[in-house]
Amino acid sequence: MVNSWHKSNDQVLLMHATSPVGAKTFALFCLASFLLSLSYGSTFLLSLLIHSRGGNEHDAGSVIATAMLSTFVAVLLSGHLADALGAARAIASAGVLLVLACLGFALAPGFGQGLMLFGLSLGLGWGVFYTLGPIIVTLLVEPCQRARYFALLSGSMLSGIGSGPLLGRAAIALDLPLTTAFYIAGLASLAGVVMFWRMGALLKGHANVPASRISWFASRRVLSSKAAFAILMVGLGGCVFGGLSSFQTSYAAAHGLDYSLFFAGFLTAAITSRLLIAGFVVKRDAYQAACVLSGIMLGAIALFAFGVSGNLSYLLAAAILGVGYGLTYSVINGLVANEAPSGTTPQALLLFSMAYFVGVFGFPWLAGKIIVDYGLWAMMLSVLFIAALNWAIATVRLIARSVWAHKTDTGLLIPFVDIKARSPNEGGPIEGKDINHMETPS
């Protein structure tokens, strides 16, 4: 809960920080984002739904993985859609696909290729929304306040994502079919579509912020720079989040727990940390922050693997994961912007988003296969290994920088530095980067 002082403070910020479109429009934007995000959150119920139809975790993972392919297409086409329709109406058009996906999951019989088709629909819709959503922020908010409002957008999306599985839990508690949650998510997404379409008329007089387009040359430059490490880390983090969230219903059932505790704990901790702590964290040294936070995330996975023995420890593990994952994402998002070669920051952020999609949509396919072939325990060990690899990358980078700095300070090494290509905040606090890089929320 946010106290009244914070509410009044946010209202003052909205009145003074936004463009002439106004605070009301930004509030509607956040509400519409929440409603659309319910569609993605509902996918965490797919494992439970497919089990009820005679399928298994591998079948669920295959459906989710199809979304990975279509998100790539969505990311590449989102700029053209924004140019043709405007960012808001491009999101509204893609949102129709999210509605279709939710209804398809509920209505399609069985668990085969029909569901995969709706997985593709989900990926297209979510990819466009995820890519263009931050552009709306740049249209509504003055540059000096964008960091705050990117956090509000991120919080709105996380709220919707986390609420999707809770709809399923509520439906079961009320003795309603699980498909009720998908119907509600579809109706909510439809309301979000209408709101974004109407928002397009409100933003008609505003110049569109050009959406980034990626090229092979820019991709090679980014992936051969230090930014590649942050891109790899977000992909690994996406594997952790996607693997745990997509099969949390299976984990909870195996341990005799209520899966809603995971989503409630994760959601509350992730949103609270992003809104209240992220502003402090991004002022710290980015390498140190990434090392500590990825270590916290690793500790949470270890707790899931070895330490969960009841509802309290289950809730605690979820909350720790929410803090570690939520803040790590913000830090490495800043790192990829800071460490990208000069002139390639927009392309680096697109690659960052695509790596995230590979992890969050692609890994569930492998995780589901591991569960079916080797058991849930093997899947948890694989997630633990990925989290350990993520932490190791952050730790090695921090140590390597310290060794480099020591050799430079003692005169043992005179580094060649291309001053023009060097990022302004490389290895230091990330807050100084121009917020126009549009942090991608997750």
Automatic annotation (TrEMBL):
Keywords: Membrane, Transmembrane, Transmembrane helix. Residues 25-403 form the Major facilitator superfamily (MFS) profile domain. The chain crosses the membrane at residues 21-40, 60-78, 90-108, 114-137, 149-168, 180-197, 227-247, 259-282, 289-308, 314-336, 348-368, 374-393. The keyword Transmembrane helix applies. This is Major facilitator family transporter. SUPFAM superfamilies: MFS general substrate transporter. The keyword Chloroplast does not apply. GO terms for molecular function: transmembrane transporter activity.
